[in-house]
Amino acid sequence: MDGVYLTWLISALAIGVVLMPFIKPPWAIITMDGFIDFLRRYWLHIAIVLTIYNAKDFLDEVDRILMANTDGMLNMTPWIYAIEGEMALWVQETFRADWLTAFMTHFYVVGFMVICYVSIFYFAYFDDRYMADRISLTIFWVYILAIPFYLFFNVHVTGNYIPGMETLAYNHTPEINDWFHRIDPLTNGMPSLHIGFPFAVWLCLLRFDSDGRWVVYRRIIFAFVLVTAFSILYLGIHWFMDIIGGMIVAAVAVNIANKMADPFWKIFDERTINARLVTLLTNPVRAMNVIRSSAGQQIKKFARPTSKETGAILAAVIIVVAGVITWDLTHQSIPAGGVDAPVGVEAADGWLITLDDKGESALVMVHDLSNLNEELEVVQPIMDSNSTYDIKGNILAMANNTTLMIVDLTDPSVVKMTISVDHPTDVEIVSEDCIAVLQNGNVDYWSYDGEEKIGPGPTEGDTIIAFESYSGQIAMVFESDPDTIQFGIVDGSGLISLEVNATGNPNEDEILLDADLNVDVENATITDISLSKTLLAVTVDVNATSRLVLLDTISGESQIISDHKFAAYDPHLGYGVLMFSAYTEINPLDAAEEYADREIFIHDLSTNLTRPLTADGLDQWAPMVLEEHYVYQQLNTDGDISVEVQQKEPTLQPYSSNILKFGVVLVIALSFINIMQRQKESNLSHHDSELAS
């Protein structure tokens, strides 16, 4: 558990206990025995709240994957921004102060814990079962009602969207920043549960506290809601409309909870359920007969359904359809068929090239991205797991220890060019008529006709440790100067030196130092390069970690894209984004299972925002971005490595598409029936009341 979170949790519990004498019913007495006894009397109530608390991590993970896999199609933030503009920015700019930021950041978390999770403790401790029944169910329904919005109505935090606005709470300290980014997808703005939960509790107290025993607590919560509304706007987290959404969800949740409280707690009341559990264990036959009888009575109701039963069926259909669609949209990647042990992957628009280890040799496997189940047979040299290859357009270059072969994939059975090489470490298709071969620490350039060409390279005695090209531009790193990019063009020998600044935030560096990890920027080494028309993305090893730096080749300005503390790898630029893999833990070898693997991230160059493409317990690396696809490698739970291909445009599988179509028709029919039933039932009720009068 993160240190900052543990501090907040302990503080919330302490504040909750300290407030007890001030908010207790006038006649109530506080004793030490009560702290133990209330758990026995209200364990199911507490379990409901804890279930919500624990379910949030799972649903946030689903939300991250859904948002990534739909490529922002569910992003409703522009609509919210179009309606209210920069109202939240005015709040932040008007009241901004360091002391207020510090106070509101801690209030935002600790206060929420006190009101939402400690509230049920008060009613349980002082044995107000009527209120405890309704508030526990209300908190449950607030979260349930918010789930569809979080999954299918993504609204970004204001500090990441409104120009000039900052996420003050998220960036207050590096430790707090890490905690927020781990637990919050930053797209769950609508509705605001920081308003929804406490406002729901306040509504319950307003509605159900008939004798005024909780009047002090009700006033405290009302004041808390007002301060919270200000804090979420000021800290750059929520929009004004998020507050409205939270209030509406709260009001609906209170009504639902009140209607279901009596029938629900008739079954699950802690005072009687224990006896039922004993009967189930000691006399299972009798227990099963009771269950069978109750189930039979419920089934009979559906034989001649009222609006209540058709409403339940309608809700079930919607949940099933939404569940199927959510599953499909969160499982968009497809493994390339026939690939058993990939040791490397290259891709170009339309083509996926994999070097598959076959034991004594290796095979270059070519897939058309439109059909991942079939491989294209390509003439190739005898390859092994250390062989190198590259693809640009339709041109595929492959090299073993002695032979470089070029093949045009439009005619894969014909060798376009063959030249002799000497144990090359890399081959790069530099331009439409030039290929670079790295061998013996140097680089040679060849045309597709087999003629040697001029190009930049290291001075005598120096060697190349990193090499990348783009449309005739060449970026290299020399062993003599490992933290500098040497930039040139094919057919020219001159080089321009570009400095890369991997200096991180001092506070972030301090965290690494506290973990006995030395940050050595002066002796940094560039380990990987990706190049586009005007940008360079490089990973820089600073000893303690590996940082991803984005460099503008025109202005010379550089920016660290990855988290300053967590190791990042495999940069790939293209089509307006920068993809990379990264850990989310300082020391993955000593991390919890959920943080011990690499995830794939996408950095949008136009918005300067980074979002995860994967969010699971599987290790993913080597991402590539194409015009219509994302490609990466993945270590699966069975220990096998697969090459995953994901379309940028989300698509539904035939089965889920059919379920969606059938579900829509069924929802329309059930809605019509339910409306008709409600009208008839209303008329009958009105008629009966007239007869009675």
Classify the secondary structure makeup into a structural class.
alpha+beta
**Widest sheet: strand order?**
1-28-27-26
Low-confidence stretches: none
Termini separation comes to: 64 Å
Helix content percent band: 40-55%
Number of strands: 28
Q: Give the biggest beta sheet.
A: 4 strands, antiparallel
Report strand %. Answer: 15-25%
Q: Number of DSSP helices?
A: 18
Task: Please state the average pLDDT score.
Answer: 85
Q: What is the global morphology?
A: elongated
Tell me the Rg in angstroms. 31 Å
Description:
There is one protein chain. With 693 residues, the chain is α+β, with helices and mostly antiparallel strands. Among the domains are: 257 residues, no CATH class; 72 residues. The protein is built from 18 helices and 28 strands. The strands form 7 sheets. It has a 4-stranded antiparallel sheet, with no helix packed on it. β24 and β25 form a beta hairpin. The N and C termini lie far apart (64 Å).
